[in-house]
Amino acid sequence: MFQDKPLPGGTLTFSSLDFSKSASGEVRADGTYSVSRVPLGDVVISVMPAPKSLSELMPKGAKVPGAGGEKGAPDVYGKGKSTYVNIPQAYRDLRTSTLKLNVDTSPKSHDITIPGK
After folding, report:
1. Nearest to 8 by CA among 91, 88, 82, 80
2. What letter would DSSP give residue 52?
3. Nearest-5° Cα angle at 83, 1 to 14
4. Sign of the four-CA dihedral 96, 102, 104, 106
5. What DSSP designation does 86 have?
6. In 1-117, where does DSSP find H-type helix?
7. How far apart, in Å, do the first and last CA atoms of the chain sit?
8. pTM over 0.90
9. Which residues pair with 22 in a beta bridge?
């Protein structure tokens, strides 16, 4: 959760506190995720946002190639499966993230809330 909404994409990484073991998984567009082989014990979590689409990376006012409906033009500039969300930088890095969790051997479901505006 970020800003009271499910995160619509990105990558979660769970790491042991000494950074010797880690596991990552993709956040789906509906905000759900699944990660296997998460280290047991106390872990720190980093959250990387989904990448921006090519159209979001273009300068404001620039004409998007293929937007005029040219026949056969690939839609590589459109929206991807995920939406970019500007996660605060501190949560993107395992060394600065304050998102922590204790993982035991039983399968669990965890909601991860990212503080921020």
Report:
1. 82
2. P
3. 50
4. negative
5. -
6. 54-57
7. 12
8. no
9. 15
